[in-house]
Specification:
The protein is α/β, with parallel strands linked by helices and 451 residues long. The chain has helices at 30-37, 88-100, 110-117, 123-134, 138-148, 151-175, 184-204, 207-215, 229-237, 280-295, 314-317, 360-372, 387-408, 413-431, 437-444; strands at 8-11, 18-26, 48-53, 59-68, 79-86, 104-105, 217-223, 255-261, 264-270, 298-304, 325-330, 349-351. The protein contains 15 helices and twelve strands. The protein starts with 7 loop residues before the first strand and ends in a 7-residue tail after the last helix.
Length: 451
């Protein structure tokens, strides 16, 4: 990690021509640089308009400067934000001048990393900053906002406090072996550990929903050739995204398109038709369809309502169940309507016409309901953990389970305390209350420059 004694600078807005560009600097030399740029920069957290002259006295632009003295700033250090006109050349000129004045170019995520190291936020809040930037839906935005305000951190603190209480009771037996401590205390420790395991399991249950919020609900559109898969995709997207033809097998590779439905983002994946006798190119497309089916959160099985229901390949059927599959009986505008066989009786079915648009609103409503069903209720807060959180929680749960088993088997109390300390360390990884520089560098490297 670079030295915290450096004063860092970066462009905080994307490259490209725009109305404005924002640059930010922070670190011990920020105040000196701010005064050198604008001597009338007096009141903090107030925008000051001034001409920006470089070190050689050349006018660069008419800018707004806002100075945030630490520790009441985003990073906890003195920070200056410069708003210039959004000409990339102007922004580059200012950045080069800031480097000439003694700044170093910030690394990816270094501003947020300093905010974490300076105690302005815990690690789960720092991760929420990136979730907020990349939120693709109303629900993803709501979860990121709550996590940024400490929702996950508060639950983790409750877990840590509960674990510390259990550990204190255990260590009392270690520190005072000759005291006549009541056996009920150890029984209460076992109860407390069980409560911690249950809360940890509840948090782990939100992992899948977190993936859906960050990546979109992976919705695979599956069916035989010419049942209207691509036509339905176009209807849901609202434009002609996929080629449509009466000739079977038009889609040889999968197409992917995100859409917003209600509070969620869905990634619609149109796949090659399940032709039982495919040509070589079609066969390759079908293999890709099966690969995407393995990753699907939701499957739209498209059937032609005017034809008998086909017998699907075993490799497909084994991935389908009433919870993850919605049957869409397309071409309902045509007169013949063949009943579904009994094997599909437990599956919810929607009738549509990609040609006329009939049934599309019912399909959209059902998709919204399916997306919402992945949400796991966890008190008043919206919680959706990520893969890093899940790894730490799994480790903590395993440590707690070992401690509980040893407690029931009356194993030496020191062994139980060791497992509880390991669980405490695993919990600490989520909020960042550990000393793991490599993990921190890897995490903040995924941030954008200037954040």
């Amino acid at each position: 990690m670079a030295s915290p004694q450096d004063t860092i600078a970066a462009l905080a807005t994307p490259n490209g021509t725009s109305a404005i560009a924002v640059l930010r600097i922070c670190g011990p030399d920020t105040s000196r640089i701010a005064r050198a740029i604008a001597q009338n920069l007096t009141s903090p957290r107030t925008a000051h308009r001034t001409d920006y002259h470089d070190r050689n006295g050349r006018l660069v632009d008419d800018v707004l400067l806002t100075y945030f003295p630490g520790p009441a700033s985003y990073t906890g250090e003195d920070t200056l934000e410069i708003s210039s006109h959004g000409n990339p050349y102007i922004a580059q000129r200012i950045l080069e001048d800031l480097l000439a004045r003694g700044c170093r170019l910030a690394t990816a995520g270094e501003f947020t990393q300093r905010a974490f190291l300076n105690g302005r936020m815990d690690l789960s809040q720092a991760e929420a900053v990136m979730d907020l930037i990349h939120a693709r839906s109303e629900r993803a935005l709501a979860v990121a906002n709550q996590q940024l305000r400490g929702s996950l951190g508060r639950i983790m603190q409750e877990l840590v406090d509960g674990l510390l209480n259990a550990l204190a009771q255990i260590e009392a037996y270690i520190d005072f072996p000759d005291e006549d401590l009541p056996p009920e205390d150890l029984k209460q420790v076992g109860t407390n550990i069980e409560i911690l395991i249950n809360i940890t399991n509840n948090l782990l249950a939100t992992n899948h929903y977190g993936n859906i919020l960050r990546d979109g609900l992976k919705t695979v559109i599956l069916g035989e050739p010419n049942v209207g898969k691509s036509s339905l995709l176009n209807r849901l997207v609202g434009r002609n995204r996929a080629l449509v033809s009466d000739q079977p097998g038009t889609t040889r590779d999968y197409l992917e398109e995100p859409i917003l439905l209600g509070d969620h983002c869905l990634r619609l994946i149109d796949t090659a038709g399940l032709n039982p006798n495919p040509a070589e190119l079609e066969r390759l497309g079908i293999e890709k369809s099966l690969e995407r089916l393995n990753e699907a959160d939701l499957v739209l099985l498209i059937l032609d309502s005017t034809k008998p229901t086909p017998v699907l390949p075993v490799s497909v059927v084994q991935h389908l169940n009433p919870k993850n599959t919605l049957i869409v009986r397309n071409k309902c505008d045509l007169p013949l309507d063949i009943k579904l066989p009994a094997v599909w009786a437990d599956y919810h079915a929607v009738s549509t016409s990609a040609l006329t648009g009939s049934g599309l609103e019912e399909l959209r409503a059902e998709l919204q309901q399916r997306a919402e069903s992945f949400h796991v209720e966890l008190g008043d807060d919206l919680i959706a953990i990520n893969a890093r959180h899940a790894d730490s929680l799994i480790q903590a749960k395993d440590d707690l389970a070992r401690a509980k088993a040893k407690l029931l088997q009356s194993e030496p109390i020191e062994f139980i305390a060791s497992d509880l300390r390991d669980a405490l360390a695993a919990y600490g990884e989520i909020s960042g209350k550990i000393d793991n520089e490599q993990m921190l560098d890897r995490l903040f490297a995924s941030f954008c420059i200037g954040k």
